């Protein structure tokens, strides 16, 4: 996984200085505070749990995290100092001095790219990589009784699946959507940008029994009957296990995400992301018809 420094750590204050006072003031601030440990950011717990998989899976699989930052090498020292303070096993980094770091994520063959920069995320998605913009919100502490299990939740259409069904809904309404999904119930949906990332999680899960798996996944979708069947048959056709599937029929997802205790939730719609972000770490996936305007 490739992750930006603003997704991993709380850099709001230094980013404010950059926005209001410019690059020189920002550089001075970072150098003056390079021995001050940064507070965790929205995706910090996700990264800790991903790295912990290397211990839990005992060499049967491995996870690598690469830091991608628009900082210069000089100002990036504070970020590396914070990584070392928290004991994060992150040894690879690219500091691009203000340029987009996306090309390095592609060169690494990353399965997931998380960033606070929406433009970088769009570039990654356009290149076929799973990517999301971290939404400001809750920073979740690791619960003592559940600190080892990584919990990842996904929306369906335009995230795991293509936006073909969502396009019908947006252009024709709910009745047209349900008619189309009922007619195509046995026709698998095309892949969305996060299908391959879900497949990688499935591969990691497969090295342990379902009862002992350190990863738990959930599909949390606004779909309801009769649009459920096509989703189930699509996952079956992909031969990918998903541990929980919640078909909410239009209900607000936030309470269900909180109950699932998601370490990260991916959704293509800004409204759903804003509602979820006070309760669980959330990534906006700017893909599909609802993001084309």
How would you portray this structure in words?
The chain has 293 residues and is an alpha/beta fold. The protein has 12 helices and 10 strands. Helix 12 links the parallel strand 9 and strand 10. Helix 2 runs antiparallel to helix 3 and helix 6 packs parallel to helix 7. The radius of gyration is 19 Å and the shape is globular. The two termini are 29 Å apart. The mean pLDDT is 90.
| Termini gap | 29 Å
Task: Identify low-pLDDT runs.
Answer: none
Order of helices and strands: EHHHHEHEHEHEEHHEHEHEHE
**C-alpha-based Rg, rounded:** 19 Å
Give the biggest beta sheet. Answer: 10 strands, mixed
What is the average of the pLDDT values?
Answer: 90
Helix percentage range: 40-55%
Strands of the largest sheet, in order across it? 3-2-1-4-5-10-9-6-7-8
Portion of residues in beta strands equals: 5-15%
Query: In terms of structural class, how would the helical and strand content be classed?
Result: alpha/beta
**Envelope shape:** globular
> Total number of helical segments?
12
How many strands appear in the DSSP assignment? 10
């Amino acid at each position: 996984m490739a992750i930006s420094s603003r997704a991993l750590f709380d850099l709001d204050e230094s980013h404010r200085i950059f926005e209001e006072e410019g690059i020189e003031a920002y550089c001075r601030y970072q150098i003056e505070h390079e021995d001050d440990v940064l507070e965790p950011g929205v995706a910090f717990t996700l990264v800790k749990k991903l790295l912990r998989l290397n211990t839990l899976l005992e060499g049967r699989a491995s996870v690598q995290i690469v830091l991608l930052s628009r900082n210069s090498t000089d100002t990036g020292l504070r970020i590396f100092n914070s990584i070392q303070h928290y004991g994060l096993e992150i040894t690879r980094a690219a500091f691009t001095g203000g340029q987009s770091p996306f090309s390095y994520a592609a060169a690494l063959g990353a399965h997931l790219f998380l960033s606070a920069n929406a433009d970088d995320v769009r570039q990654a998605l356009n290149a076929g990589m799973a990517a999301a913009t971290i939404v400001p919100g809750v920073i979740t502490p690791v619960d003592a009784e559940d600190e080892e299990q990584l919990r990842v939740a996904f929306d369906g259409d335009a995230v795991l699946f293509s936006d073909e069904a969502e396009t019908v809904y947006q252009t024709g309404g709910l009745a047209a959507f349900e008619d189309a999904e009922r007619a195509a119930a046995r026709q698998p949906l095309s892949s969305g940008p996060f299908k391959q990332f879900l497949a990688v999680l499935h591969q990691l899960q497969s090295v342990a029994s379902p009862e002992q798996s350190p990863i738990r996944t959930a599909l949390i979708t606004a779909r309801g009957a009769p649009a459920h069947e096509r989703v189930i048959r699509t996952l079956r056709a992909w031969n990918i296990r998903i541990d929980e599937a919640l078909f909410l029929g239009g209900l607000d997802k936030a309470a269900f995400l909180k109950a699932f205790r998601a370490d990260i939730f991916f959704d293509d719609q800004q409204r759903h992301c804003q509602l979820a972000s006070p309760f669980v770490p959330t990534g906006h996936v700017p893909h599909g018809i609802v993001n084309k305007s």
